[in-house]
Design goal:
The complex is a heterodimer of chains A (172) and B (296). Chain A has 172 residues and is mainly alpha-helical. Chain A has helices at residues 13-19, 33-36, 49-58, 61-66, 78-82, 89-103, 111-118, 144-155, 158-162. In chain A, helix 1 (13-19) packs across helix 6 (89-103) and helix 3 crosses helix 6 (89-103). In chain B, the strands form 2 sheets. Chain B has a 4-stranded parallel sheet with strand order 2-1-3-4. In chain B, strands 5-6-7 form a 3-stranded parallel sheet, with helices on both faces. The mean pLDDT of chain B is 98.
């Protein structure tokens, strides 16, 4: 998608990304090491941290909110390791995801509610355990009292407080 | 020696045979495994880290508080769990610890003092146990077998935060595999990521498959290995299951078995392959049969 410079600019955008963890964004000098190294490079629309940073610096909030490429990140952190400016591109990917979640809650991953529900992203009690002579799982998945404590901890977090209904928490 | 085994989510949910392989192979090396009572998701980068970093740190600290209370460091196989647990600890001990304890852990009567740490299982096997002890625990070897390794990205980068190996030329998993008697050749795309983690395959499956194919073609053409050795649940499931998908799609016409390192170690130690290496989309029977012919 080409960048349209006539688009409305939000001068606060960079500051907002910095606030949610992208503090090294301003170190980027657009060399493209992060792009050259990215496993998504062969995709039709690759994840380009370089481009995302450019969009943020231009203040193109409307473009950034529509861009789902940060969610394609493999989390291999090759960019993080090799960035010559130590701009921490992987942290910037996560920061942009967080900003998107703040701007549009439909970005909040479903997996958060799974973790709230059972402490894990999925059911970890595989029925094959018995056949394999594996001991009982002792995580929150089988410890109701500890799971409740874990949920209590999560209820203290901003994302759960602000989006309680997503987690099945009723107001009041 | 006592360690806390951090299970994560994918391994117990989808590949409990890997968990079995880890438990029995570590026991054969004299390691005592403690189960972390009340542990939860690490949490993965695609979850709380992507929405609320403080929440991610709170969950990480919750897991550490359990290990610390039990007086153990955690050992973990999943690359993603390893990376996020190390990242949590890094951010906690470099400034956020007190705040996270006060705002979150204290509300549920928990506390993390920053003592308990995490080790990736390959780091633990290589640097704590050592290859000599591994070699002396073997009843069978991989002699005559050619194995390539898939070093999990999450265990080598960012090296300043979580590294224990050369990030540009990692050797630990290769040395561990050589300790089992296998030949470990290199090839052009040796160091390429598998592409299985994060949101790549979910957002653009075709590209993620093409990306893996680059690596598989390179190893097949250049070294034609008997198997791939990994030490990360995502590398294992992706490289094994995506191969089957690519065969069905006509993208590849070969098949390279994939093992978790501890599955091979356990088989070489004489543990039952039906228990430690039961689940696979790409058949592994030939490799297992060959190992069982090589009695020490």
């Amino acid at each position: 998608m080409p960048i349209n410079l006539k688009e409305e600019r939000d001068p606060e955008l960079v500051k907002q990304i910095v606030e949610v963890g992208g503090e090294d964004l301003l170190k980027c000098y657009q060399c493209g090491t992060c792009v050259a190294d990215c496993p998504t490079g062969i995709a039709d629309e690759p994840l380009s941290v370089k481009r995302l940073i450019h969009i943020a610096k231009l203040g193109l909030a409307e473009v950034l909110i529509e861009d789902e490429s940060p969610w394609m990140c493999v989390t291999c952190t090759g960019c993080e390791e090799r960035c010559p400016r130590e701009a921490r591109p992987f942290e910037i990917v996560l920061a942009i995801r967080r900003w998107q979640c703040l701007e549009d809650e439909t970005y909040i991953p479903q997996a958060l509610t799974e973790i709230y529900e059972r402490g894990h992203t999925q059911n970890v009690v595989n029925p094959m355990r018995e056949e394999l002579d594996l001991p009982e799982i002792k995580t929150v998945a089988t410890r109701e009292d500890l799971l409740e404590k874990f949920r209590q901890l999560l209820r203290e977090t901003r994302v759960v407080k602000e989006h309680g209904y997503m987690f099945g928490i009723m107001e009041g | 020696m006592k360690i806390g085994l951090f299970l994560g989510c994918n391994m117990p949910a989808l590949r409990p045979d890997v968990e079995k392989g880890i438990r029995v192979s570590l026991a054969s090396l004299g390691v005592e495994i403690v189960d972390l009572e009340g542990a939860a998701c690490c949490p993965a980068y695609g979850t709380f880290w992507s929405a609320d970093e403080e929440a991610a740190l709170a969950v990480g600290a919750w897991n550490y508080s359990i290990a610390e209370k039990m007086g153990v460091d955690m050992v973990v196989q999943c690359g993603s769990c390893y990376s996020t647990l190390k990242m949590s600890r890094h951010k906690l001990i470099n400034g956020k610890l007190q705040e996270i304890n006060e705002k979150y852990l204290s509300k549920v009567g928990a506390k993390y003092e920053g003592k308990s740490d995490t080790k990736h299982i390959t780091d633990f096997l290589y640097n704590t146990i050592g290859v000599d002890k591994i070699k002396s625990s073997l009843k069978y070897t991989m002699k005559g077998l050619k194995a390539v390794v898939q070093v999990p990205c999450h265990t080598i980068r960012p090296s300043k935060i979580l590294g224990f190996d050369d990030p540009e030329n990692p050797q630990v998993l290769k040395e561990l595999t050589r300790a089992l008697g296998a030949e470990v050749p290199t090839f052009t795309r040796d160091k390429q990521c598998c592409g299985g983690a994060g949101g790549y395959a979910r957002h653009n499956r075709g590209a993620a498959l093409e990306f893996l194919k680059l690596k598989l073609d390179s190893m097949k053409e250049e070294v034609d290995p008997d198997c791939i050795v990994v030490s990360c649940i995502t590398c294992l499931m992706w490289m094994d299951e995506a191969q089957e998908e690519m065969r069905k799609l006509g993208m590849i016409d070969y098949s390279i078995p994939v093992f978790d390192y501890n599955q091979l170690l356990a088989i070489c130690q004489g543990h039952d392959p039906q228990k430690v290496a039961r689940i696979a989309a790409t058949p592994r029977d030939e490799v297992i049969a060959k190992i069982l012919e090589n009695k020490v």
